[in-house]
Every structure is written in structure tokens, then in C-alpha cells.
Amino acid sequence: MNPQVLSSILLVVSAVHAFQYQELVQYVDEHKEEYVETLRDWVAVESDSSNVLKRPDLHNMMEMVAQKLRLMGGTVELVDVGEQELPDGQTLALPKVVTAQFGNDPSKHTVCVYGHVDVQPAKLEDGWATDPYNLTDLNGNLYGRGASDNKAPVLAWIHAVEAYQDLNMELPVNVKFVIEGMEETGSNGLDAMILAQRDTFFSDVNYFIISDCGWLSRRPALTYGTRGNCYFFAEVEGPIQDLHSGVYGGTVVEPMTDLIGILDTLISPSGKILIPGIREAVAPLSDEEWKMYQDIEFDMEHYKNKIGVNQLMYNNKVDLLAHMWRYPTVSIHGIEGAFSNPGTKTVIPAKVTAKFSIRQVPNMDPAMVKKQVTDYLHSVFAKRKSPNKLKVTMVIGAKPWLSDTQHPLFEAGKAAVKRVFNVDPDLIREGGTIPIAKTFQDVTQKSIIMMPIGGFDDGLHSQNEKISRYNYIEGTKLFIAFLNEVSQIRKTIV
Prior knowledge:
The protein is of the alpha+beta class. The protein has 15 helices and 20 strands.
């Protein structure tokens, strides 16, 4: 037998026999209150990346992350990713990206865990039942902004590594971390940093793991795809200033009427996208994928009740999940320049801007979608023969991400879920966009898995965001088990 092959087999056998799962589980259970207190400290930092006044808090948050990893003995860096230009022309330092490394054994796989510690805005008066920045333990749930998205998952990964260390157990794989502080506002500077460090920090990474997502139901899940996002502004400009509708109504072609008219041509009442070329570009639904959707645990009645509607766009599970995850959709988000305050105001706006997005799926290309949308809206607008001016701009062009569920990385994920939860996971997609996954995939050409521990009812970006104690603690055990399962993937497979 080839000596290298024999060495690889012996490594695998050794790893199998050396894995002391019960000891690690006991350690986690003994330290769960400590884990909750650490999460409390992290949630207390108002790391809102959208509020420039909170930027000192964000810098402090990144230093807290770095210090936690330093105390564990990691090789830690705070990477400068530049400045952010504000609308008034001023510049503001971006929060540094934390990178860390634990282990550098060339005979082992190297995994890189990505996460973020910035949060969406939150105020008590928004409708929170508790102070959003004071982690509140109620009925087995830990309430606080960023608890599920994404501070608890980041900490669970850190605690997983820490458990091995504190029990003097060798990590089964080398572990790297990339933790950022601008995910909620577009991950400014991160793509450039990944590209710049492709041949250094990321050069030996075999697999990327992202836990910035959630389960679909009470059943644990592994995520293998996300939609992308093309975000548009459609601006219609008419008179040089706002006009009084009593004086000028009936004499001018109103920009708002034009805008509403063209928006109505984007999508039908039944949800069919009307822009030529969009639906034709979508990858067809395979029989295998249809079967996967059939087997997923999903309660449509609970879904309806949760969002407070009495009717959904589709009346069966497969169609609904398919249109949530793997078909594009048009969503109209708002109109800038229109009168929207309480009361009445008889104004004809001089300029109005609609904001809408199209979620991208394979095999759509954002550059092509930009052209299709722009050409289509201008053609529709031309038919109105309006004297007003239309300007269409695409401000975001994020690509979708899709992974191979047959890859051994997903087999490792399934085995870890089975060990910890004693069930097989659902294989799901995300309807939202996590652009970093596509960036890692494109830049490094390495495999990626999304391994969520957040619950289906955690209320991400909403009032009363939470993570359950169960998911937080059992999720830590899941990550511990997963690191061991990854160590058993043959080194020839990437």
C-alpha cells in the first residue's frame, strides 16, 4: 500500500478513536451559564453598523472579539479595511476585521468560520418587550438585538474551540475565524480584504462555514443556497419644484402617476414577473430538488399565522418553498419624495424615486438583469409619451450562491446533526442574500456550508429578537461534533 494512503487512513482511524464527545458535551453543559453571560456582555454593545454615531461601539465590539480570541491563544489580527465615505463627503474609519488562527498542522484540514457582530438598529420604543441591549432570559429564550443574528452563533463557534482547548484535547482540524462588523450594511471593505489575502490567510483553507442563517422549522437544517439581490432606483422627474394640486392639478403630467404606472408593469397580481427574459433565465426545477422540498418539515398554517395573513401566494408546500428560495421575485420597497407623513398635503411631487429589488437565483446574471430592467422600464415609459424624465439605476448587484449537497462537507454536517439532535437535518435554501458566500466561492474556489443554529422564530431584524438557550448550547455541541466529522473527510477531497 502507498505510504501516503496508509498514513491518511491511520489519521482517520486515530481521529475516530480519539473523539471524546461525551466529555466535550459535559464540559459545555457545565459552562452554559458562563456562555450566557458572555453573550450578555456582547449584546450590551450597541454595535449598530448603520448608525455612524455608534461607530465607537462597533470598534469596541471588534476589540472585544479580538481579545476573546487572543486570550484563547489564537494568532489574531485586526485587519484595516479602509474608510467609509458618508453622504456629506466626510470619511469614517471602518471597523477592522478580526482574523484568528488555531492550529497550523499541514496534515489536517483547515476550516474557516465566518461571522459578524454588527446588528440592525433597535430601540425599546420600536415595540420591544425588553431592553434590546440587555440580554433578557425569559422562558428559555435569550432576548436581545443581535442575539441570534449573529452574536450567539459566533460565540458558539468560539466556545466549541475553547472546549477542546480547556480539556487539553487536540483540535481535529485547524480553525480560522473571519469576524466582521459591517455585514448589516453591505460588508464594506470585506471583499477587497478577502481578495488581498487569498494567497496568504486563506491559502490553506479547505472549507468555509457560515452560521448567519436559521432553521426553517423545529428540525435542524443545513443550508446549501441563497438568493442574490439586484436593487434598483427608478426616478421620475418633472417640474422644477413641488406644485399645489389645486392650482396645477390637471395641467401637468404628474411624476407620481408615471411612476405608479411603470411599477404596475413589473409583476402581476399572481406573482408572475413581467420583465422579459427574467423567468427564462431561471434554472429549471429538477425532479431531485422537487423530492427534497417534499421531504422538508414545513407547516404552512403556522407560517401564515406567524406573519399574520389569511392567504399565501401558493397553496402547497413545494410551490411555496420553491418561490421562497429558488425562483426570483420582485418586491417594491418604497417611494422617496412622496408625501408620507400623517395628515393631508395637497402636493404634486416634482421628483419621486421608487425603490424595488429582484432576488437573483441560478442562472441569472445581475449585469443582464440590470440591462433587462432598464430597457424594459424605458420602453414602458416611452409608451406613456410623458414629458417627464426617467432614470433607472441598479445600486446592488449581489449574486446567488449554491452548493453541492452531495459534497462530503454536507455528509459531515448531516452526521454531526444526527449525533447531537438524533434526527436527520432538512436541506434548505435561504430566500435572503448572504453575499459573502459567493465571494468566498469565487475568490478561493473552495467548498462552503451554511450551518445554522438560529431558530425559525428568532425574529431576526425584528422586535424581540432572541435565541433559545437550547439552540445556543446544543448549537455549540453541534459545532464541536462537526469539527470532528470534517477531520474524517479524505484529504484528496476539497
